[in-house]
Every structure is written in structure tokens, then in C-alpha cells.
Design goal:
This protein is an alpha/beta fold and 277 residues long. Helices cover 26% and strands 25% of the residues. Helix 4 packs parallel to helix 5. The structure holds adenosine-5'-triphosphate (ATP). The site of adenosine-5'-triphosphate (ATP) has 10 residues, from helix 1. InterPro entries: AAA+_ATPase, ABC_transporter-like_ATP-bd, ABC_transporter-like_CS, Metal_Ion_Import_ABC, P-loop_NTPase.
Length: 277
């Protein structure tokens, strides 16, 4: 096993887009995380890791204004969060598509533009052009007229990225967008998100169980576990010492062929990914 140097952050940005101060989320007497102080800058790529039930999706719901903090404050571009804000694009956790849905790929993307309006989307020329541009940006034109139920997981995920980008958001929230994709499509989808970050300085908050496909893109990691957290660069957070102190028990982070493998994290599988076969 050879130690591979981890990627250092590519930017240090004072232009903060998301500011959390003394933030806590608790349900009843169960505290998911507390004392969270963090500032995320424009164009920053943050991975949110942690075992099942540690509060990763809830963290995104707080940013989306769908869940109130139980203590502390959150500002999105210096304002309190607001449900339905066009500042935020959201790729929700994968949901199965109803086999009988009449929606086609391009309809899904159009919902990102006019989904807030009641009734079926109205297809004016400007909207059609915007949808075409979004489809083009994610390489989904070829299958955009097919019913959703006939699309593969990778194709659907491209469309979901396009839908989330429809409002040209300053912040892109991704909830396990790589789940159930093969390695090739994990790379494709991660690169689509990263490309947007590079070209538009979009801040990315990326919930994942598997950091390896995005390791080279990640500036900082928010690791949630046991009602606590660690926040810092991958080199700071993804170490045996840091994760052992977070979990309160011995956890080993090993570097294997350029991949990170977390061994022994209680109550879950390896957040750094399984060792490659
Ligand atoms: N509105 C709510 N009321 C009470 N408990 C909640 C509520 N929302 C979430 N929880 C609980 O909070 C915990 C964290 O949920 P969350 O979905 O944020 O976890 P997660 O880290 O995203 O998990 P996973 O990796 O399984 O997706 C879970 O135990 C969940 O049941």
C-alpha cells in the first residue's frame, strides 16, 4: 500500500455563498449535527459524507429552506434561505420512474424551467430553445424525446442534471447523484457537475457515499457522524486520526491505487468506497 498525496484545494474564496453559524439540526432529543460554522465560496465543490441517517439529506433540506435549523443561522447569499429559490438547483435522490408516465426526457427538463406553474408546461419558442440548450449541455439530445420509463439510469441522471441547471443556479445541491450508476456513468455525471462549476463558478454541495469518483474535484469535505462533524480539505478530514476521533473508535483510511478506502467506520459501509477488485 503506497501513500498517495491527496488533492489540495484549488481555491481559497472569500466570496461566500453559503454561511452557517452555530448551526444545529435536532429531531426531538436526537441531535444530527451541532455547532456547525462554515462558509462556502463561489465555485467551491464540497462533498458531504457520512453513514446512513447522519443527516446528509437533511443538510440539503436546510439549505433548500425545507427544514428549519433548531439553532444557529444560515444565510444564502446573505439572505435567509427561501423555499423554491432560483438560486438553488437540486438533484434529488434517485426515484424510480412510473412505467406509465407520459413524460419524455425534454418534459423533465422543462419542468425545471416552468414546473412552478400550475398545469402542463406551456411550450413557447423561448422555453423550447432553453430546453434544447440544457439538453445539449448535458449531452442528452439524442434521447430527449423518449419516454422517461425507457431511459437508462445514466440517461435519466443527465436529464436530472439539466433540470437542476434550468434556473442557472448559483448553488447546485446533489443528493447521491451517482447512486446505482456504473463507474463510467459515475464519471460522466460527476464531470457534468464539475464542468458547470468551472464554467459558471457554481458552488456544488454533493452528498455521496463514495468519494473516489469526485476526489479530484473536491475542495472540502463535510463529514457527518455520531452527532458530530469534521470539515476541511480531503487531506485534513480523510485521515485515520480525524475519522477515528469523529467516530470515537478506530477507523483506518488507506490509500490504494489512488483511491481512498475507509475501513472500520461503525454502522455503515466504507464511505471512501470499497477496495477495487
Ligand atoms: N422531519 C423529520 N422528523 C424526524 N426525523 C427526521 C426527519 N427528517 C429526517 N429525520 C431523521 O433524521 C435522520 C437523518 O436523515 P437523513 O435523511 O438526513 O440522513 P442521511 O444521512 O441522508 O441518510 P442516508 O445516507 O440513509 O440517505 C434519519 O434518522 C431520519 O429518520
Amino acid at each position: 500500500m503506497t501513500a498517495t498525496p491527496l488533492i489540495t484545494p484549488r481555491r481559497s474564496n472569500t466570496d461566500n455563498v453559503i454561511s452557517l453559524s452555530g448551526a444545529e439540526l435536532a429531531f426531538g432529543d436526537r441531535i444530527l449535527w451541532q455547532g456547525l460554522d462554515l462558509e462556502l465560496g463561489r465555485g467551491e465543490f464540497v462533498a458531504v459524507l457520512g453513514p446512513n441517517g447522519s443527516g446528509k439529506t437533511s443538510f440539503l433540506r436546510v439549505l433548500l429552506g425545507q427544514q428549519h435549523l433548531s439553532a444557529g443561522t444560515l444565510l444564502i447569499q446573505e439572505r435567509p434561505p427561501r423555499r423554491g429559490s432560483a438560486l438553488l438547483g437540486y438533484i434529488p435522490q434517485h426515484r424510480a420512474v412510473a412505467p406509465q408516465t407520459p413524460l419524455r426526457g425534454r418534459d423533465l427538463v422543462r419542468l425545471g424551467l416552468d414546473g412552478h406553474r400550475w398545469g402542463l408546461p406551456v411550450g413557447d419558442r423561448r422555453t423550447r430553445r432553453q430546453v434544447d440548450e440544457l439538453l445539449e449541455a448535458v449531452g442528452a439530445k439524442a434521447f430527449s424525446d423518449r419516454p422517461l420509463a425507457l431511459l437508462s439510469g445514466g440517461e435519466l441522471q443527465r436529464l436530472r442534471v439539466a433540470q437542476a441547471l434550468a434556473t442557472d443556479p448559483a448553488i447546485l445541491l446533489c443528493d447521491e447523484p451517482l447512486l446505482s450508476l456504473d463507474l463510467h456513468h459515475q464519471k460522466v455525471v460527476a464531470e457534468l457537475v464539475n464542468q458547470r462549476r468551472r464554467t459558471h463558478d457554481t458552488t456544488v454541495v454533493f452528498v455521496t457515499h463514495e468519494i473516489n469518483p469526485i476526489l479530484e474535484m473536491v475542495d472540502r469535505v463535510l463529514y457527518l457522524a455520531e452527532g458530530r462533524f469534521r470539515f476541511g480539505t480531503p487531506a485534513e478530514v480523510m485521515t485515520s486520526a480525524s475519522l477515528s476521533s469523529l467516530y470515537g473508535s478506530p477507523v483506518e483510511v488507506v490509500h490504494l491505487n489512488g483511491r481512498l478506502v475507509v475501513v472500520g467506520a461503525p454502522g455503515s459501509h466504507d464511505h471512501g468506497g470499497e477496495p477495487s477488485a
